[in-house]
Amino acid sequence: MSTPYWGPDFDALAAFDPDIAGVVVDELDRLRGGLQLIASENFTSPAVLAALGSTLSNKYAEGYPGRRYYGGCEVVDRAEEIGIARGKELFGAEHVNLQPHSGASANLAAYGAFLKPGDTLLGMALPHGGHLTHGTKVSFSGKWFDAVQYGVRPDTEHIDYDQVRDLAREHRPKLIVCGGSAIPRLIDFAAFREIADEVGAILMVDAAHFIGLVAGKAIPSPVPYADVVTFTTHKVLRGPRGGAIVCKAEHAKAIDKAAFPMMQGGPLMHAVAAKAVNLKECLQPEYRTYARQVIANAQALSDGLAAEGLRPVAGGTDTHLALLDLQATGVTGADAEQRCDAAGIVLNKNAIPFDPQPASIASGIRVGSPAVTTQGMAEDDMKAIASLIGTALRDADGSRTAEVAAGVRELVGAHPAYPAPRSSSPPQSAD
Ligand code: DSN
């Protein structure tokens, strides 16, 4: 590295555009000042942010390394090749595509590789913990495909594998998708594989939520079972906002063609480089420790909230998130979200299975441990957080908001997010 680094210069931004510089600073303050419990969010490292804010953003690179539609791609090719190699190593994958801009894009590409409009798709219903792109009527997945939906059992709130099998036999889907946004328990990938094989369907695992736990070897991997695994790179994984796909070698061509040119144009090479940085981080031993702590923290948080009178859906969690039924408290999900937010606890209202409330109100909340674990919090902190949430929920008139907010300040003061002072100085050259 002989040429001087040229990267984000915050002082220049502040001088030229104080409005947007103010937004950037305020958002950092917001992240630092509250408890971020949105299960799909995390704090990306300065190394990832440096790649994201680099001049790789300038390059058009339609195509894949060595076969692009533009000249001058020999440098950005290296970023993608390095990232792909790291993804293969991390996940034991036969093929990796780092180009999808998001999880929804990755899912669209995977459907595009295997389905035609009108084909049948079997996915988990959104109100039971699935995802918008798994066949919901308002999404392309429910508009373009004949989407059949499975859910959880009313007694256990675990995925109803008997229902999945029955629906698969009845509807003969071309593709079965598992995974979702509010599934606290592990998914039985072997059971899905067996059902897919019985009806000759492609098995797609949308691992967006839990891929970081797979990367950290804290839960079983779907990669050996699935034809294709899609994921986002910004949740537990802790990379830049974006998507990715891994698949069996036999599907590599179809997936690559679906990602480009069917679904997207030019890849975001700064994001691809940042994904490569993140994958290197995930290959470090410290990341495994992090992934295990994420689960321990989610379990401690779920247990703590149960002690506050909230009911953990499915009886608890094996992952990074817990879904809590608030019905016994008489507080709706929307009210809970608002009361917590007022005190600096950021979480989201969430439908619970068989929810009597509309999604805009919801009977539950979803909490996740990825961000607070990145801050270095542990089980005792989760107990304190659960107690603060319990107090906020019972505080109908807002008279205890200041007390809860003080508790939040104490926790984030002891474990600050992005603790290092902000600096626009260039890093030292490596040679
Ligand atoms: N919106 C994301 C989540 O919060 O789970 C999934 O796309």
From TrEMBL:
One of its GO terms (cellular component) is cytosol. (6S)-5,6,7,8-tetrahydrofolate binds at residues 126, 130-132, 250. Its EC number is 2.1.2.1. It is found in: Cytoplasm. SUPFAM superfamilies: PLP-dependent transferases. One of its GO terms (biological process) is tetrahydrofolate interconversion. The keyword Amino-acid biosynthesis applies. InterPro entries: PyrdxlP-dep_Trfase (IPR015424), PyrdxlP-dep_Trfase_major (IPR015421), PyrdxlP-dep_Trfase_small (IPR015422), Ser_HO-MeTrfase (IPR001085), Ser_HO-MeTrfase-like (IPR049943), SHMT-like_dom (IPR039429). The record marks 234 as: Plays an important role in substrate specificity. It comes from the Bacteria. Its cofactor is pyridoxal 5'-phosphate. Its main location: cytoplasm. One of its GO terms (molecular function) is glycine hydroxymethyltransferase activity. It is an enzyme of class 2 (transferase). The keyword Nucleotide-binding does not apply. The modification N6-(pyridoxal phosphate)lysine is found at residue 235. Pathway: One-carbon metabolism; tetrahydrofolate interconversion; Amino-acid biosynthesis; glycine biosynthesis; glycine from L-serine: step 1/1. It catalyses: (6R)-5,10-methylene-5,6,7,8-tetrahydrofolate + glycine + H2O = (6S)-5,6,7,8-tetrahydrofolate + L-serine. Keywords: Amino-acid biosynthesis, Cytoplasm, Methyltransferase, One-carbon metabolism, Pyridoxal phosphate, Transferase. Residues 14-389 form the Serine hydroxymethyltransferase-like domain. Homodimer. Catalyzes the reversible interconversion of serine and glycine with tetrahydrofolate (THF) serving as the one-carbon carrier. This reaction serves as the major source of one-carbon groups required for the biosynthesis of purines, thymidylate, methionine, and other important biomolecules. Also exhibits THF-independent aldolase activity toward beta-hydroxyamino acids, producing glycine and aldehydes, via a retro-aldol mechanism. Thus, is able to catalyze the cleavage of L-allo-threonine. Belongs to the SHMT family. This is Serine hydroxymethyltransferase. It comes from Blastococcus mobilis. The gene is glyA.
